[in-house]
């Protein structure tokens, strides 16, 4: 089995989870509910990532939720795709989560691995990672809706960009065609938005669920110009992102021509009634009481 270095990048601030075993709150939060940040550990890896609380919208259409501070990194995704958690407690069942076959070539395309966003992956691959993480953690993870993503990106701003309307400032906050040198960069190396979220604009564009339930991406990527970096910009899924895949049928897991597509996860305080939450091998600490320092 491939041995991977799954260590935290220098400078990343995380907390050690307390020994509490309380489950997430049993009732849906109101728009004014205050959630606390928490750190999500990845099984079989010396790695965890921060989940940031996002307040609900003023009109109540968006309820409070958590979203990852950064795009999903290879340190987390490697455990899922390379089955590095095998041999642990199998209480979530061997068939509970579908995973892609192990890739023959490095999926990072040589751009960078540790502290880099996972990329070239399909909407299904991102969804199944969320299902796997839900089963392992006992929490409910999923992809953000377009409305949630944009709400989190704006961080209360009503301007074109979350930092204002001046595109000349974009290089301070995003990796895009004007400064990225045609390649993605390590996460969290530009300035965050007002709610502490990194790379909401640029680096890799992120999978979301549109109002019609269909996949689309938000945020633009390292190859896009400034006008694709706005909080409102959206790009639906395109067949061209997998055009050169020689497989018949084409891979449902990887994008042969999409090395600019990634994702970040959302966590709900409680799962929807129609989506049962998978049991965790070990009960997690409550996200409402486990604070990232």
Structure description:
The chain has 293 residues and is low in regular secondary structure. It has one domain (43-287): Alpha-Beta Complex (paralog of FGE (formylglycine-generating enzyme)), CATH 3.90.1580. The protein has three helices and nine strands. The protein has helices spanning 74-81, 123-137, 146-154; strands spanning 38-41, 48-54, 65-68, 140-142, 205-209, 215-218, 234-236, 261-262, 266-268. The two termini are 35 Å apart. Mean pLDDT is 83; it is low at 1-29, 90-95 and 275-293.
Please give a quick description of this structure.
The protein is largely without helices or strands. It contains 3 helices and 9 strands, in the order E-E-E-H-H-E-H-E-E-E-E-E. The strands form 2 sheets. Strands 1-2-3-9-4 form a 5-stranded antiparallel beta sheet. The chain has a 4-stranded mixed beta sheet with strand order 7-6-5-8, covered by helices on one side.
